[in-house]
Design brief:
Elements (H helix, E strand, L loop, with lengths): L11 H20 L11 E2 L7 E5 L1 H9 L6 H16 L5 E7 L2 E6 L1 H15 L12 E5 L11 H20 L2 E8 L4 H13 L10 H18 L1 H16 L3 H25 L5 E4 L4 H13 L4 E2 L6 E4 H5 L8 E5 L7 H16 L3 E7 L3 H13 L3 H4 L2 E6 L2 E3 L3 E2 L10 H19 L5 H21 L7 E2 L2 H4 L7 H18 L15 H23 L3 H20 L7 H24 L9
Parallel strand pairs: 5-6, 5-11, 6-7, 11-12, 13-15
Antiparallel strand pairs: 1-2, 2-4, 3-4, 8-9, 9-10, 13-14
The protein binds one RNA strand of 76 nucleotides through α2, α3, β9, β10 and α13.
RNA sequence: GCCCCCGUAGCUCAACGGAUAGAGCGACGGACUUCUAAUCCGUAGGUUGCAGGUUCGAGUCCUGCCGGGGGCGCCA
């Protein structure tokens, strides 16, 4: 059995040698009278084909230069690398050492290393790549749909991103609470109810596409309101008053229509394979938020201008900023009703009270950056410093339509999620039927769903959060190239080999052949997975996993084309079968983190 | 007016401050009697928006411009 640290370290073998190497390097530098380095950085060697690690001597040479010695840094670095290579000789566990342009490259003794990476991946299976328990509890809040509105592709990015991020953080070693915060109340909801009472009373939503119907009525409400604003505003105001007065008819209508939306959301979450541990509702925040605001007024943080004005927090003024930055946060309307800034104060604190969180992450689009800065700063001023130190707004850019057209629930300019899911599934179904006509109808349908959803999800995750995404049908339904089906296909191929081989993967034969370039590349990729998981978790970037999964699939497809498995001699065949199984593990695990299924056939 | 983000190949995007800036799509040319060709191999394509600066070293950090997007008192 391998020592415990083996489970978490992609370069376990290197880890064993690292201490020895570093002290040897330090001794060499000291001998050369070069100022000591704070730490020695190790990195990958580009242009692989051989497998190893690398460190450079630019820093050491630069330190010399800073210390007053007259040196040409690149030249001196090359000199030091040469010297270090000579000094080290050939350390145990390595097959070759070279000095190139200031870099010292150490190549692993491949067979040994390969066998250990594969053994680790196979031994850990679904847990391969998992990080050690951090002891930290984090909440990831995402999705935040609004009832009485459409669910469109703009909401998709948030949903997919949040779900994948939660998976990644969990796998990296944190305890995760998946939270949703549903907008089930506010002026928009009243607007919807007003329109429904005027024009649709007694109607029920259709069995399918519930959120489309809800969205259509919302869009209609806005049009009606614009047509006769004065009259409409008055009536909506009256509706609000009735609500405030606990009018039972109004409350009943709200509860019933709200549920229609919630049912619709759940249908979508089911299809997308997304679940939540805790669902918060805006309607629950009204009362607690007012208590907090009262306290803020009492403490002189908020200013109460009612009834002539709202309740506000003049942040820049409180902070003594000469230049405006935080501006003004409005908490209550002049009629005393709470705005979402007030709700967010309550919600932020509720989360910590309920779960004793070490970290509270908000996956919310970038347009609300100032809002969260205001909310968090207000909490800080109110004395909730511990909580504020651990909240984090993860902003991501919006999804637009081609020509920079903004998706708008209000205008009804949307590409509906239900529609996208349906189109993607139909499209992938056609391709499955064409590529693999032997599949029975049930399997074909399953595969079509798995592939269609995957193709939708991948582009949302494979992009810097800070970059605007443009949705167009052609790109969304293009399953070729760097896309999820490519990765799923690699998984299918691996599975196919293993199915035919019916091999006993436990019998470990000593590798007896010179590894091919494609084998090394594949093993290298497999070994990187745990490291990539940690990086993605630390940086909150799903992008690292999507890129990794694609590179891994590419390495596998290259291996597949160049290295026959089933026809190879026994020893090679046995080694390659284990390698294929290890690759399948890494592919399946990385797809799982992304919320993408890994089918066995397609 | 103030603040934030983006600008890399024709298009969509990558690139812990490090070696020759890489993929996919599109274009062109090859590879299926062989584990599923949803694949693989090759060719073409770049003043990383512009100008300075920091650094041994800048697509990456800093400053200023240009272009695009977004936010900024009673929507969420």
């Amino acid at each position: 059995m391998f020592p415990q640290h083996f489970a978490y370290n992609p370069h376990a073998m290197f880890e064993q040698e690292k201490a020895h190497l570093e002290s040897a390097l330090r001794a060499f530098l000291k001998e050369q009278d070069v100022p000591a380095l704070a730490d020695i950085q190790w990195s990958q060697i580009p242009f692989s084909g051989e497998w190893g690690v690398s460190t450079s001597f630019f820093q050491a040479a630069a330190n010399e230069a800073r210390a007053g010695k007259k040196v040409n840094v690149p030249q001196r670095a090359a000199e030091l690398a040469e010297g270090a290579a000579a000094h080290l000789g050939l350390p145990a566990g390595f097959s070759r050492v070279e000095a190139v342009k200031g870099y010292l490259n150490l190549y692993f003794a491949a067979p040994d290393y390969a066998a250990r990476v594969i053994a680790e991946a196979l031994g850990q299976g679904a847990d391969y790549g998992q990080g050690a328990d951090s002891g930290q509890r984090m909440m990831v809040e995402f999705s935040q749909p609004n009832t009485h509105k459409a669910f469109h592709v703009g909401h998709l990015r948030n949903m997919i991103l949040g779900a994948a991020l939660a998976n990644i953080l969990e796998f990296a070693g944190h305890e995760i609470v998946r939270a949703n915060y549903i907008g089930d109340f506010g002026k928009d909801v009243l607007k919807w109810m007003w329109n429904y009472r005027e024009r649709h009373l007694g109607e029920e939503p259709p069995a399918e596409d519930v959120t489309r119907w809800m969205g259509d009525l919302y869009s209609e409400a806005n049009k009606q309101l614009d047509a006769n604003p004065e009259q409409a505003e008055k009536e909506i105001q009256a509706l609000f008053a009735a609500w405030e007065a606990d009018d039972s008819d109004v409350h009943a209508l709200w509860a019933k229509t709200r549920q229609w939306s919630l049912d619709g959301f759940n249908q979508i979450y089911d299809v997308m394979g997304i679940h939540f541990d805790r669902i918060y509702y805006e309607s629950e925040m009204e009362k607690p938020s007012k208590q907090i605001v009262a306290k803020l007024i009492e403490d002189g943080i908020a200013i109460d201008e009612r009834p002539d004005g709202p309740v506000i927090v003049k942040l820049d003024e409180l902070l003594g900023n000469e230049q405006e930055h935080y501006r003004v946060l409005v908490l209550l309307r002049s009629d005393g009703s709470a705005l979402y800034g007030a709700w967010d104060l309550a919600l932020a604190l509720t989360k910590f009270e309920e779960y004793e969180l070490d970290k509270s992450i908000y996956v919310v689009d970038v347009r609300q950056s100032l809002h969260f800065e205001q909310v968090f700063k207000t909490l800080e001023l109110a004395g909730y410093k511990d909580q504020v130190a651990n909240v984090f707004h993860l902003p991501y850019e919006v999804v637009n339509l081609p020509g920079n057209v903004v998706l708008s629930s209000r205008e009804g300019v949307v590409v509906l999620l239900e529609e996208l899911i349906r189109e993607a599934t139909i499209r992938s179904g056609e391709i499955v039927a064409e590529k693999n006509p032997e599949l029975d109808a049930d399997t074909r349908a399953e595969v079509a769903t798995a592939v269609g959803l995957a193709a939708m999800k991948y582009p949302m995750l494979a992009r810097e959060n800070t970059k605007v995404a443009t949705f167009d049908w052609e790109a969304a339904l293009d399953f070729n190239g760097q896309a999820a089906p490519y990765i799923q296909y690699a998984h299918v191929r691996a599975n196919s080999i293993l199915r035919r081989a019916e091999a006993d993967l436990d019998s470990v034969a000593a590798p007896s052949h010179e590894h091919s370039e494609s084998e090394i590349e594949l093993i290298d990729r497999i070994s990187q997975f745990p490291e990539i998981v940690q990086r993605a978790a630390t940086e909150y970037k799903t992008l690292h996993i999507t890129n990794y999964a694609f590179e891994l699939a590419k390495a596998f497809n290259d291996f597949y084309a160049n290295s026959p498995v089933l026809q190879a001699d026994d020893a090679v065949r046995n080694f390659r079968l284990r390698l294929v199984a290890a690759a399948k593990v890494a592919l399946a695990n990385s797809l799982r983190l992304l919320g993408i299924q890994a089918p066995d056939v397609m």
